[in-house]
């Protein structure tokens, strides 16, 4: 079991990270008719005293309380958590897309950080760092042996502080150092290009506060290059989610006004909502229904053809949360054909509550916070996304040769204590367990054959070698599509591990 989890975790690193949304809850008073469990509270304080007075070394009382709070919240489900003050800023960065760093999009190659692209206008861009550059050292720290997350932390820091990157540039066969002054960066969440005459590829990497503006700008660039588009591929693969307001806006761009995009259902009145293709539902994510004038709608700048141009949505096991909202809405309204692999299945809403009463939003939260699951997402046809995900209209493999290791990708239903869908009992998927075991063996065999040479990385998304993209284009052009012969709908797993 240990080796299974290790391999699955390695392959899906980052697939879950950031797959969440925030909505501000007003403080609610506890129902006076429901008494507190006094006996259990007394037992908690009794255990606190035992640990404090009898543990082998003195324990800080504040740490004990913090650990107790963290355990209480994280025991609910995989996405609820207590966020200490020191981690609040990092959490906020995932939502806003803003961070302090050098401004590069990265991957890994041969154990080194590979620059995918410098963000335009960033310190790295101005310093002359190029796509394909390999970062071998960050200050005095060798990158070899670090994870992506560890390397990122080394490069991020406070504004106006210096970091020295050691670069190896293959094309010039030389190494050199580049001193860079860190600055606030706005991540680019949308990419787009005309892949061939008449057809555009539009990728949303994560739904952030600036995603809608990026989206409108990229669509405008595409239509300027090719005003007579015959088809669009909306690529949501490996998009972990993020802002619900942004996802509602992106879905609204392609749909007719006022149609339902997503609904939420939970215990509190504030967690029951229906979001439509209407500016008030994506321009005021925290203040719906308030009587105030709306700001200009950025979607009003889009060409009218965006509502009717034929389109395909690409998804995979890494498409989660907000990206599942978009795929589900476009699928239910029959606006687009969904192709790829069954999505992650994170159909739950996490509300972010600052514990300091003076603070009302996470980006202004100066103290600790609690992220807690308060509702489930439902598509326009009232399908629960939770622990199931979006099933594509056409299943595709990762490559022309087959799915390879896709069965190892972790999904919501694989997570311990995952929330059930709320639509019927969950049954263990024997076929999926078998597929995962076969994929694990195949991966280990391929890794053994490769020896010291790394396994061939998957092709870059949006490139001519991107097999699912080529199949999506074939679909738009009414050409034959190489459909997966092995992929089947995956059911939610083992309800005995849920709560």
Question: What would a concise description of this structure say?
Answer:
By secondary structure, this protein is an alpha+beta fold.
What's the count of strands? 19
Biggest sheet overview: 6 strands, antiparallel
The radius of gyration is 24 Å
Strand-residue fraction? 15-25%
Termini gap: 22 Å
Number of helices: 12
Average pLDDT works out at 83
Helix content: 25-40%
Net shape = globular
Spans with pLDDT under 50 lasting ≥5 residues?
1-30, 287-291, 493-499
Question: Which structural class is indicated by helix and strand composition?
Answer: alpha+beta
What is this structure's SSE topology?
Blueprint: H1 2-11, H2 38-54, H3 61-74, E1 81-83, H4 85-96, E2 98-101, E3 104-109, E4 112-118, H5 123-126, E5 134-138, E6 141-142, H6 148-155, E7 162-169, E8 174-181, E9 183-186, E10 190-196, E11 199-204, H7 211-225, E12 231-235, H8 244-254, E13 260-266, E14 273-276, H9 279-283, E15 311-315, H10 322-332, E16 337-340, E17 348-354, E18 369-378, E19 394-395, H11 430-450, H12 467-476
Parallel strand pairs: 11-12, 12-15, 15-16, 16-19
Antiparallel strand pairs: 1-18, 2-9, 3-4, 4-5, 5-6, 5-7, 7-8, 10-11, 13-14, 13-18, 17-18
General description of the model:
Helix 8 runs parallel beside helix 10. The radius of gyration is 24 Å and the shape is globular. The strands form four sheets. Strands 3, 4, 5, 6, 7 and 8 form a six-stranded antiparallel sheet that branches. It has 499 residues and is an alpha+beta fold. The longest helix has 21 residues, at 430-450. It is built from twelve helices and 19 strands. Strand 5 (134-138) and strand 6 form a beta hairpin. It has helices at residues 2-11, 38-54, 61-74, 85-96, 123-126, 148-155, 211-225, 244-254, 279-283, 322-332, 430-450, 467-476; strands at residues 81-83, 98-101, 104-109, 112-118, 134-138, 141-142, 162-169, 174-181, 183-186, 190-196, 199-204, 231-235, 260-266, 273-276, 311-315, 337-340, 348-354, 369-378, 394-395.
């Amino acid at each position: 079991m240990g080796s299974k989890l290790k391999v699955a975790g390695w392959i899906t690193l980052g697939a879950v990270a950031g797959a969440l949304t925030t909505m501000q809850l007003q403080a609610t008073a506890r129902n006076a008719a429901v008494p507190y469990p006094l006996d259990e509270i007394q037992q908690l304080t009794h255990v606190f005293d035992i640990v404090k007075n009898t543990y082998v070394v003195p324990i800080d009382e504040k740490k004990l309380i913090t650990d107790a709070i963290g355990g209480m919240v994280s025991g609910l489900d995989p996405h609820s958590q207590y966020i200490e003050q020191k981690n609040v800023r990092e959490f906020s960065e995932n939502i806003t897309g803003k961070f302090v760093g050098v401004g590069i999009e990265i991957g890994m190659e041969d154990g080194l950080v590979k620059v995918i692209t410098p963000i335009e206008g960033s310190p790295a861009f101005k310093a002359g760092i190029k796509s394909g550059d390999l970062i071998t050292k960050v200050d005095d720290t060798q990158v070899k042996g670090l994870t992506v997350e560890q390397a990122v932390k080394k490069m991020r820091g406070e504004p106006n502080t210096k970091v020295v990157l050691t670069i190896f540039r293959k094309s010039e066969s030389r190494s050199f150092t580049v001193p860079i002054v860190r600055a606030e960066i706005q991540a680019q969440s949308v990419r787009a290009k005309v892949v061939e005459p008449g057809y555009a590829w539009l990728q949303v990497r994560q739904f952030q506060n600036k995603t809608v503006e990026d989206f409108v700008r990229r669509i405008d660039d595409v239509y300027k290059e090719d005003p007579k588009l015959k088809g669009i591929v909306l690529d949501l693969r490996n998009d972990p989610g993020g802002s619900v307001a942004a996802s509602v806006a992106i879905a609204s761009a392609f749909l007719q006004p006022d149609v339902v995009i997503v609904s939420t259902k939970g215990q509190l009145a504030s967690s029951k909502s229906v979001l439509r293709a209407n500016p008030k539902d994506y321009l005021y994510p925290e203040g719906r229904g308030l009587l105030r004038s709306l700001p200009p709608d950025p979607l009003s700048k889009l060409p009218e053809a965006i509502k009717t141009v034929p389109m395909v949505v690409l998804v995979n096991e890494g498409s989660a949360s907000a990206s599942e909202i978009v795929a589900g809405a476009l699928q239910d309204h029959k606006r687009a054909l969904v192709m790829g692999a069954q999505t992650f299945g994170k159909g739950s809403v996490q509300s972010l509550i600052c514990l300091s009463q003076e603070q009302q939003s996470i980006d202004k939260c100066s103290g600790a916070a609690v992220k807690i699951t308060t509702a489930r997402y439902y598509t326009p046809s009232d399908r629960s996304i939770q622990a199931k995900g979006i099933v594509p209209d056409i299943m595709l493999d990762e490559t022309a040769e087959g799915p390879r290791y896709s069965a190892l990708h972790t999904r919501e239903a694989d997570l311990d204590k995952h929330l059930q869908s709320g639509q019927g009992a969950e049954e263990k998927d024997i076929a999926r367990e078998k597929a995962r075991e076969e994929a694990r063996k195949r991966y280990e065999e391929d890794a053994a054959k490769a020896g010291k040479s790394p396994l061939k990385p998957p092709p870059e998304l949006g490139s001519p070698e991107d097999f699912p993209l080529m199949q999506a284009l074939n679909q738009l052009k009414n050409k034959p599509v190489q459909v997966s012969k092995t992929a089947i709908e995956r059911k939610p797993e083992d309800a005995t591990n849920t709560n």
